[in-house]
Design brief:
Layout lengths: L1 H6 L5 H10 L1 H13 L7 H8 L7 E4 L4 E4 H4 L12 H8 L12 E2 H12 L3 H15 L4 E2 L1 H4 L26 H10 L6 E3 H16 L6 H18 L1 E2 L9 E4 H8 L17 H16 L1 H4 L1
Antiparallel strand pairs: 1-2, 3-4, 5-7, 6-7
Helix pairs in contact: 7-8, 11-14, 12-14
Amino acid sequence: MAVIHRQLNSSQNRRILSTFIESDHFQTEMRSVNQESDAITMTEDDETSLLNSEKEVVVLNHPKLNKKINFTSQHQYRRRKLGCPCPAIAILANHSYITPKNAEDPIPFYQLIYGLVYCFNISFLNAIFLTFTANILCGNGWSTSMAKLGAHNKIEHDGSLTRYDSDKGDSLNPSPERIFNFLQSASKPNDRLTLKDFARQRILVEMETETTRSMTRRGILTTLGEYGLVMSVFGKKTSMIKGDEEMGITAEWFKTIYLDEKLPSDYSPPDQPVTVFKVFRLGKSLHKMMKNTQSLI
């Protein structure tokens, strides 16, 4: 990962990243990541043969590469229950974008930045911000680990839609019961979940948490940021005219992302890089909807 490390010391972040993606270094780094995760880099002939076989293949169009990425050959899904409170980071581990050997194994900062940019099309500056926020709160500044990310009230927080509070159960792994309860409470449980549905459920979950202990300010802000990020990466609007309240994801995608901690089979990264501003805007929209409790509950 030396190439990515060197990029972080340059002021021309975006241009260098684009050049790197199109260069021969990209294939070198991909082979390095695959070796670390016991994956095998396939030749074009191997990929063609696999595409013609009966094996399930997920082919995505990556906007930064402008070419197809074969997730079966390069980022095959392999469930690794390492106890991660963040679904996005768990997805990166399950698809070998980050390659910790166990929950205690350090995740270098450049590897996490790499995964956020290539898998979710997080903007380079946003990826740096998210990575070093996690590393400062849950690491030594340069790396973190799944175990450190699980420390209570840092990245992990009470009031999760998909995990129990730490005083009530497993706060690090998804709860099928909580996930299906949310799906059933949604306005259109068999269709899609809108930001309005997330707001309604957030109110109920926070009320549940408050019966035993108060949510911290950091926990509330982390929650808003998490769902702002999820909607920025996976959300779609039903209409370009309507506001953020109509931003949503399908129920099937929600189950795949949060229960299996897996990329949906028909997923492709956002066309535009996900910026800090977009995540903040959607988080703020969610917070405003939560304030209007009478119309939601």
